[in-house]
Amino acid sequence: MRTAYHEQLDAFDGALVEMTRLVGAAMTSATESILDADLGKAEAVIRGDDAIDAVAADLEDQSMQLVALQAPVATDLRVLMSGLRISASLERMGDLAVHVAKATRLRYPASAVPAELREVIIEMGHVAERIVERTGEVLANRDVPGAAGLAVIDDEMDRLHREMFAIVLSPMWTYGVEAAIDATLISRYYERFADHAVTIGKRVIHIVTGEPYNAGLVD
Amino acid sequence: MRTAYHEQLDAFDGALVEMTRLVGAAMTSATESILDADLGKAEAVIRGDDAIDAVAADLEDQSMQLVALQAPVATDLRVLMSGLRISASLERMGDLAVHVAKATRLRYPASAVPAELREVIIEMGHVAERIVERTGEVLANRDVPGAAGLAVIDDEMDRLHREMFAIVLSPMWTYGVEAAIDATLISRYYERFADHAVTIGKRVIHIVTGEPYNAGLVD
Question: If interface means Cβ-Cβ distance under 8 Å, which residues of chain A face chain B?
Fold first, then answer.
């Protein structure tokens, strides 16, 4: 029989999955805003971050109450304590989408992305969508092989990050220092977004197996 | 009378303070490595990060065990659950020191810092030292006004971050795009280092007052 306690635990898990959907949608809109120099879309991402922060704050309350009232042990305790940190990673992924949107706003009505970089930003946007969607599935199913597989998608992001540097540093780059700085920071936001997904995957592995979480492997 | 449980809680707090000392020392060495193009110092910072990660992993174990065995409530529970996230911030601050050290290594035997940027990097290093030292005091004393004061030190870091952009974008900048990208990333590592200190301050306020933690204010 399902108890109220187990329903609350399920709701906690469900809210984490919902957060992956919210930050995924935020990053998709942020990517569109920067590719199209779309100020309205950028502003919507920036405003929308409050909703993501609110879910994170609510998850923190829930986990504190469940730990205090139910004194969970073993897997349930790991779900709640690791869930807190997963929520912190997701909240930060939302912030990174906001940073991309703010780059759009900073250069509007000009574009923050010269034509030479469009393709790499489009690909980074796709990889960000893929990794956050997989992260949601990994969380929903406590999928350990899937969690380990997030690192493979992250490798793709790292490759794109290096490609962006190669473009900006090539003799063909005619946009000067400011555009290079914009590109560096935007690219780093996508790279960090994917890093956080990998961190979440490691937390899921910890929840399922009880093996110690190893932060060192992430950097 | 002090119980073994309270001694464990004190040890948990003490380990967090010790982590501030470790990441502070790492950032100080990283700053010296980048100013002096000192490869040995950079390598020591990179190697030393394992010790910081080990303290973080140990804190995670301790908090799980204390929560599972002692079923703490109210402030004690907040200390343990917020402590987990404080430890994650400190671990990340250690990573940022490593990133600075890796910038040293990447450009060695050349310097990653042109003469025009020396002064701003020296100041960023000082602000990083100050904010992490204050963070240790705030943690040790659960100092709420001190915690709020970390944002003032962070403002100083943000000012230096903007100053760095002004130098790199001025017509006097003759070092080209690659040096500008290095400077952008290095400066961002210091800026994020200080952001994490502010986040820790907010967590300390949450521990003391029980008021909800507000992530939104940090970004």
Answer: 49-50, 53, 56-57, 60-61, 63-64, 67-68, 71, 73-74, 77-78, 81, 84-85, 88, 91, 95, 98, 165, 168-169, 173, 176-178, 180-181, 184-185, 188, 212-216, 219
Q: What is the CATH number of the domain that holds B192?
A: 1.20.58.220
Asked if A169 and B188 come within 8 Å (Cβ–Cβ), the reply is no
Closest residue in B to A74 (Cα) is B68
The number of domains in chain A is 1
pTM comes to 0.94
- Out of A84, A177, A180, the one facing B84 most closely (by C-beta) is A84
Confidence of residue B2 (pLDDT cuts 50, 70, 90): low
Q: What letter would DSSP give residue B171? A: T
CB pairs below 8 Å between A and B: how many? 97
Decide if pLDDT at A1 tops 60.
no
Element (H, E) at B114: none
Helices (H), chain A: 4-36, 39-70, 74-107, 115-141, 144-169, 176-209
